[in-house]
Amino acid sequence: EVQLVESGGGLVQPGGSLRLSCAVSGFTFKNYAMNWVRQAPGKGLEWVSYIDGGGSNTYYADSVKGRFTISRDNTKNTVYLQMNSLKPEDTAVYYCNAGYWGQGTQVTVSS
Fold first, then answer.
1. Most CB contacts within 10 A, which of 3, 36, 40, 95?
2. What mean pLDDT is reported for the chain?
3. Closest CA to 80 of 12, 8, 27
4. How confident is the model at residue 106 (pLDDT cuts 50, 70, 90)?
5. Which residues have CB under 8 Å from 81's CB, separation 6+?
6. What's the half-sphere exposure (Cβ side, CA atoms, 13 Å) at 49?
7. CA–CA distance from 89 to each of 15, 52, 93, 107 (Å)?
8. What tens digit of pLDDT does each residue of 49-97 get?
9. What percent of the chain stands above pLDDT 90?
């Protein structure tokens, strides 16, 4: 059974940081590129970041470039999203995706 379990979300003040994790099971993790995607309240899905299977190539949406960093640990079957300098507009449910979806983790940026 494929499972993607996101964690690490929460409430943070503007300018703060969070680190999201996505633990994967049920498929050969190292063979899959991973994405982080988010959905803000009342809006559609927005792609945030991509990392290839080996972790060598990463891409970011312009809205998060320079503030977010995607990484992965193939020994732990986990992908991460380090989020710094958070803004209220980063408030969303964050999902990891590899053709499969997790349940998401809520990130709220508010003072």
1. 36
2. 97
3. 8
4. very high
5. 19, 20, 22, 36, 48, 49, 68, 69, 70, 94
6. 25
7. 12, 26, 12, 10
8. 999 999 999 999 999 999 999 999 999 999 999 999 999 999 999 999 9
9. 97
Q: Say how far apart CA 88 and CA 74 lie, in whole Å.
A: 32
How many residues comprise the chain? 111
| CA atoms of 72 and 79, how far apart (whole Å) | 4
Nearest C-alpha neighbor of 75 from the set 35, 23, 18, 26: 23
The gap from C-alpha 56 to its chain's centroid, in whole angstroms, comes to: 17
Query: SS3 for 30?
Result: helix
Residue type, 33: A
